[in-house]
Every structure is written in structure tokens, then in C-alpha cells.
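ok so I'm stuck.
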Amino acid sequence: MQVSYFDISRRPPDLQQRMDLFERLFAQLLIHTDGDADEALEVLQQLGDRHRLFDESLDFASVVDAFERHKLVMVTPDGHQLSAKGEGFVRRSTLEQIFSGLKGGLGGSHRTPRQGAGSERLEETRPWAFGDELHAIDFQRSYLNALRRDGSDLRLQEEDLEVFESQHDTSMATALLLDISHSMILYGEDRITPAKRVALALAELIRTRYPKDALHIILFGDVATEITLQQLTYAGVGPYHTNTHMALQMARRILSRKRQANKQIFMITDGKPTALCRGSDQLYINSSGFDREIINRTLSEAAECRRHRIPITTCMIARDPYLVRFVEDLTRINQGRAFYAGVDGLEEAVFVDFVAQRRRRGRKRKRASSSP
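replied:
not stuck anymore, here's the structure
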């Protein structure tokens, strides 16, 4: 397989650097092999032999032993199996790799730039104003102001009061839709691995930096299925068609139940809709492409998402003319966004857009809440 995220043409001189490289490679290989630890280790050994990364100080057996001691993998009667700790390791490693590769980084957190009543207290203070909460008063500074005003009288007056500044944190509920139809690995191009990397890294970003956020992951092929974070590493492409309508419908219903004020859908796909559920158990498929019933039902669901104030961002990792036409219609109806990411640019495009939209939605909501 082609490893595009690392330069392994030369062996790192330091032993720890080499071990770090093996760990990063192992994390990527686990995504590529759908969580099959034995297959990932086999490919890791092949890469190490090919690029002469092993020697007497660090051979393949020592690398595997380190993975076992760090509890990244477990030894079972059937071979090695990824552990729960190993699943977290894959997410963390993927997030670190994506962040290190972003041009200019993501530029900080997702707080709104305006100050006011919020959830996180700052060190800065300002004069008290009508409507400020009593718990926000900085009594130490307020009494100092009273002393400066009248050294013999510590009775506070309105002009003495100062309150702590605070910043608004926004919360977001995101549904990440991953296309797992057969075209995601068609013609020798691996599109599912970067898509899974995005999902794993986004989940880790939200878990560690945006704890008030929610992320729901939906795989869609012939049908749509919500999966847990633990299942994502093991998800793979199947001989499926593309039921975009069911994926959008499931995402809308999930997000409509969330308490977060801001909601959005990220959809990563490389194909036009080719499947539709008629009723509860009938699957209608038209592999040829631009089926009007499938397209119209899908576009109607995009309009329903708009009525629920759920914008859709579509990441197209292919330039099929039918897909472009469909996505243009979907974006216009939903008033969402769409962009061509390509396999190589998918991660940067999604992450930069994800953070940018959180900031934009946060500022918009703050302006609305402060309007008379």
C-alpha cells in the first residue's frame, strides 16, 4: 500500500523517533485495514523491512512487544486484537497528524470574539452595568476602588463595582455522514481511509477540546446506520449503492433531538444517489445514475433540513458531472455549502471549515441574543 502521510525513505537516527514513527504508521494502517491488528502489523513489518527501519537495536519483535506492553493491542487465541486503549490511540494519533499538517493550524479555540455574560471567567474586569450577575462581581477590586475613593469608608457604591469579564462558548451538534458505497475504493483509489481519518480526528477534537459539542457518525450505503465511535475504526466499504436520502433523514432526526442550538451536517461522498427506501422494507436501486425519484426525494430531504435550520456541507471527493449537478442543486435548496476537497485535501478542508463554521454560528447567535 502507499503511505502518503509519512516520509519513511530514511530511517530516523534516534531510537525513540523510530518508535514514534512505527506508532504513527501503525495508527494509519489500522484505519486502512478496518481495525485488523494482525494485517496492520504484517504491513508494518513489510514497510520496516523495505525501508531498513529495523536493526539489532530495534527489530520488529521489539516493536510488537512495545505495542503489547503499552496495551495498544491484546494477544488473543486468534492473534492480535486492537484494545480500547488502542482505539483511543488511533484517534489521538490521527488528530495530531492532521493538526501538524494543517497550513497555519486551526488558530485557537471556538470561542466567540465578543465578551459578555458567558460560561468562562476571564482575569480582566470592567465596571459594573445594570443587568450584570452578582456572582460576577470582583469584590477585591471593588473594595480597592472604594478605598481609593474614600480611605475611611468601605461602603460600596455603584461606581466602585467591577465585574469579571467572561467569554461565550458555543456548542454544536454535528452529524458526519460517510459514504461507504463501493465507489469509495473503486478504480484503485482509496477514498474511505481519509474519510475515516477525518471522522476519527473530529471525534477526538470534539471530545478533548469541545466537550459541550456532540458528534454523530452515520455510514451510508444501501441504507444508513449510525455507529458508535468505537465502531468507526472497524468500518469498511461494502458492495453498496448510495442512499443519500436515508442518511440525511437520519441525521436530521438525530440533530432535531439535540439540545445544542447550533446544528450542522457534514457529508463526505464521491457518488450520486442511487438508492432509496420505499416504505420500511423495500429498497429501490437504480445504479445507472440520475434517477428522478431518488434525486427528488433526496433534494426534498435537504429542504426539510433547511426548515429545521440544519445546514449541509458536502465534501465532494470526485468530479463526476452528475454528482456536481446534484450537489449544486442540494446546496441551493438547503442554502448550505459544498466544495471539492480531493483525497489529499479532504482533511484540511473539513477541519478548517468545521472550526470556521463554529465561530461563525457562535457570533451569529450572540448577536441575535443581544438584540433588543
